[in-house]
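Exercise: predict the fold of this chain.
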Amino acid sequence: MLTMKRTRFRNTWRIRSFSVAIAAVFLAGCHRDPQVVKKADLNKGNAYFQARKYPEAEIEYLNAIQIDPEYAEAHYQLAQSYLKQQEWGRAYQELTRTVGLDASNFQAQLDLANLLLRAGKFSEAREHAQAVLKSEPRNAQAQIILSDADASEGNLSNGLDEAQQAIQMDTNRPESYVNLALLQERNKNLAVAEKSLQKALSLDSKSTSATIALGRLYEEEKRWPEAEKQFQAAVALEPRAPVIRTMLASLYLAEGQKDKAEQVVRDAKAAFQTNPAGYRMLGDFYLSQRETDKAAAEFASLYAAHPKDLSVAKTYAEILVSQNKLDEGAKVDDALIKSSPKDVDALLLRGEILTRKGKPQDAIGVLAPLVKDAPDNAMAHYELGVAYAGSSNLGQAEAEWREAGRLRPNAVEPQRALAALAVQNGNESLLTDASEQLMKSEPGSPEGYLFHARALLNSGNSAGAEADVQKVITIAPMDASGYVFLAQLRIQQKRFDDAEKLYTKALGFAPSSAPALTGLVNLALEQKDPAKALRIVQDQIRQVPNNSGFYLLLGQTQLRNQNPAKAEAALQKAIDLDQNNVIAFLLLASVQVSQGSVQQAIDGYKRALQTNPRDVRIYVSLGSLLESQNQWQEAEGYYRKALQIQPDYPVAANNLAYLMLMHDENLNVAVSLAQTARKGLPEIPNSADTLGWAYYKQGVYSAAIDLFQAAIKGDPKNATYHYHLGMAYEKQNNHALAKQQLEDTLQISPNYSQAGEIRKLLTE
């Protein structure tokens, strides 16, 4: 009996196991059906979406699309999740795909039209709305899109009419009243707009759009308590919408309640720990308030907490670069490029870092291919222009900045660069164009008006220049630049007392203003009062004790007061405060040479090169000093290094050419260098003499004579120019003129280095 029971039990187990196996196979077969699986993924996504877990919903929708790339419903729902996360570009792609797969999805057509409105593509938005109205003539939402498109294109009257038509299509639709109110507000009918919004809220007291719109209306009217009440109500209606909290914070800022605004964004960061639009609100707030150090600390924290958020990484890297923490910024940017090698923003930042590090050629190597791959990227053209300017290729820099301005007419950076370049080159037409574009792009900024004032002043229109400067003072009464420019105008008008008052006022607003202090000092020096100039600088340094530029000015003023020892101390202090103050390095070396401390000056130049390895002025100055000490071979080396950095730098080309000619080095190279120098310095006698001596060495005596004559015209008391001209006349057998020039040489400089040779020639 016992055996039978065991046998029966065993058989029963086998039957049940077989049944379970059959069921498992059946169920597995169902789950492998793509139609079933994709629908299940869609439903999971919808559940997450309803729970406002949009990233999780996004994953499920993508799973469904992976199974069926033409699953229109999944594409549409994915677009909705992107819209909720404010990822407009991705939403646009998915809506476009949805409409392509299912043109009868009218809501997708309307969502796409709204995105196109946001992007400023009004005619395309209108096409989608009209496609919906063709099938649904009383679709109020489509009618509203037509209204918005017309109003956005400047036809506000048509927009208002179409908004009224939308209300007639559906009198119980609150969104139609909101749209009408926004247009009425644009038409300055604020009271009427308020009634429309109140009507919308009477139809739906929980309408977030109506609540926000009413809050903004009250904010515009400076009805702060009412506006605050509306925005707080909107936050309660949509607690998971970061943008509403941004509006509330902006309201507090407008009221001057910065602490409250900061608390709002702090709370938002805590509430939205997984939503990028929320957790970066505090950092963006600090950036908007120009509290760069706080922003840097906040984004450093965010970068550590969200290492895969490329937007956070980019912002953090940009902040580091703006703080001149180039190595730290480069480290973050390198990680960005490693994860996304073609990321335009990251490559742009790499180019900017290289330019700032004094490696413009390396920057060009990064940015030129980027411009080729992204020819419509205005900032890429701008940064490439900066790199070209850093390599002294100003023509190419101008071309890139012009292209950046063409691509983005309202971008300030390229116009500012063009204006500065125009000032440097004396290009009045370019200065006028760039300044006018700056005024148009930023009518509330003083910068464009200042550039425009300079253009007018250069053309002789001082009255127009003064009008521009008065505009600057009206726009920015606390900005020192307007008073400085007006002071310069007063000096031209010989109204020196007024100029002094204006410079003093500028320093009151901006105690660190180098132009204002320099203006005051120069005014005192022009009035032959170097002691007063010295007092002015010293008083300002007591107020601003760590300003390198001020110590440079103190050194210059001490020299005017015949006190080289104190000048040397001031210049050394300027360098200690700022190792990039190249002018202080150059002037300090000049003072040291005048005091007989030549080796100290040489050592100073070499220290300057350690922190400013691409500043050609240091190489040339050091080369000139070494040349004066008969260390011509070492001098040649520094001139060559300068030309490696800036191949057309005329002073380096001139000096190197002359040394090569004096020591019978490669004549063809020397001639080419002398021609470069003459082209870059056409008004300088020395460049004429160097090229003339090169032609003399070539045997082209007529051309040499013309150049020597030009040099003497520019500097009649230069013995070398007369000597060279005499030698050229001698080669042409014009002995009378040769004798005259050689005698002039000895008369100017009886101990001239070639005096023995000259006397021998005169005897012959």
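Check your answer against the key: DSSP finds 45 helices and no strands in the chain.
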